[in-house]
Amino acid sequence: MQILKVIYMQRPTPKDRPVILDPKQYIVSKTDAKGIITYGNEYFVEISGYSEAELIGKPHNLIRHPDMPKVIFKLMWERIQNDQPIMALVKNMAKDGRYYWVVSEFEAKRNKQTQEVINYTAFRKAAPKKALPEIESLYAKLREIEKQSGVEGSQNYLEGYLEDKGVSYDQYINKLVGNKGLFKIFFGAMKKLFG
Q1: Among the CATH numbers 3.30.450.20, 3.30.830.10, 3.40.190.10, 3.40.50.300, which is that of 27-127+178-194?
Q2: Alpha-carbon span 83 to 78, nearest angstrom
Q3: Which pTM does this prediction carry?
Q4: I need a surface site. Which of 54, 136, 166, 169 has the fewest CB within 10 A?
């Protein structure tokens, strides 16, 4: 009988200090269909603070910052699994507890015969600083609601928030990050390179 050994890494304590990202660099990581990291480009490894060996084989949520509301990941997974594009502002956490904000876009690769997901690729760039005050405020509100009413409550709030602004989720994120065309060009080039 073979014993499966799972190694869990202790999550760091969040620090209120940012990792300074190079706006010219890109971050790419791949996971299998279950969200286990199979690849990270050199910059992903560098800013995460983990060694490549520490990252490979671990769940991608290893870098998830506790400031992220669960409803954003629910929305991302629903879209990704339905082959719909989504751009999101995400706060990640490095091994030493520092944080970094990125604009992320995701892509699912499917088996051509079965249409089952083979892997996911995440493409990321440094988030524009001008977007952070508003998104931090919204995310804090969503987390507060999740504590009382769960993900369903925060999803209802998010839908009402966007409706009140008269925009879809995509329009809202595009407005926050500005220069949508530049991000679309960047993410398109990354998909061709790593797809």
Answers
A1: 3.30.450.20
A2: 9
A3: 0.87
A4: 166
